[in-house]
Specification:
mainly alpha; about 180 residues
Length: about 180
């Protein structure tokens, strides 16, 4: 059940990341075209691209936490094996859980609710900023979920070496 939920959250984060990156890329392309080819720069693209970067970075952080690809000092973890490594993973997960739950989840929810309460809108698009800020508690909830998963079953989380995976994939394709 937990693995199914984790897969679902991974897929939702992937979709959110793809959407955010696509929006960002299209905004930048349109800004360049409208400014240099049309001579009339678009005014909304700067704000949309800023919001896309915010969502991209926070959702990317949550996704990286779930794949153990976040920034970390791993010199100690690389030297540990067996139960010592699992204990280390649990200790780090507990620290990240406390931070994420208090700052991202609790603080982010307070920020979102406050932005709606005071009716804060973005300058150009006049979008309620609560929607923009909502990526903070969403990312926090995902990070909390992943950290609970690590606490419960740290062996099911392993760092993915994408370079080795890519090389292995290329070698299989060349052999076929």
């Amino acid at each position: 059940m937990l693995r199914l939920l984790r897969t679902g959250i991974d897929r939702l984060l992937q979709a959110g990341l793809i959407l955010s990156f696509t929006v960002l890329a299209l905004c930048v392309i349109w800004q360049v075209v409208s400014r240099y080819a049309l001579g009339n720069p678009s005014i909304f693209t700067e704000e949309v691209s800023r919001f896309a970067v915010i969502w991209l970075s926070l959702l990317g952080t949550a996704y990286a936490c779930g794949r153990l690809e976040h920034m970390a000092y791993d010199m100690l973890a690389e030297k540990l094996q067996g139960q010592a490594l699992l204990t280390h993973m649990r200790a780090v997960a507990a620290l990240v859980l406390v931070f994420s739950a208090s700052v991202f989840l609790y603080g982010g929810l307070k920020l979102v609710l406050r932005a709606f309460e005071v009716e804060q809108f973005s300058a150009t698009l006049e979008v309620p900023m609560g929607y923009v800020y909502s990526c903070i508690p969403i990312a926090g909830a995902c990070i909390v979920f992943y950290q609970i998963g690590i606490l419960l079953n740290p062996a099911s989380f392993k760092r993915v070496n994408e370079v080795d995976d890519a090389i292995e994939h290329v070698n299989k394709e060349l052999a076929a």
